[in-house]
Fold this sequence. Notes:
Order of helices and strands: EHHHEEEHEHEE
CATH class: Alpha Beta
CATH architecture: 3-Layer(aba) Sandwich
Helix content: 25-40%
Strand content: 25-35%
Amino acid sequence: xxxxxxxxRRGVPSDHRALNAVMRRASLAVESGEVLRLxxxxxxxxxxxxxxxxxxxxxxxxxEGEPAGFASYLVGGSDEAxxxxxxxxxxxxxxxLGKLMFRAVERELSGRQATAIRVVAGMSAVDFxxxxxxxxxGEEKTPLGPVMPVMRKALR
Length: 156
């Protein structure tokens, strides 16, 4: 039975500040070394682009009405979408929020005729993405430096 205190909804521009806080806490909890140093020195990497919220390309998980996680995605000119990011407050890890958000993103993308979704996965998220059906198809250098796995999942 689903937890009634968890709700999934589309993000709106007024969520911007709260989602930045979620992103910051989640990111700082998993990163270390040079990436952590860069995140702290360049905080713009810890902010969601407001454009995702304005375009309705964000799914938010709330717990007792407060944002506890979000997933942002980009639907471009092709039939393949990009999962831009997925973040969950550390105290809510392993409670199913990521899976609920990802399923909501899948429904949104299917409704927009996307046939696949791609993500550049952080190393701490690879097992999660495999569990929801992604496969590693390559690797890519990220803006913060490290090379990360590129993963893809067919939606149809």
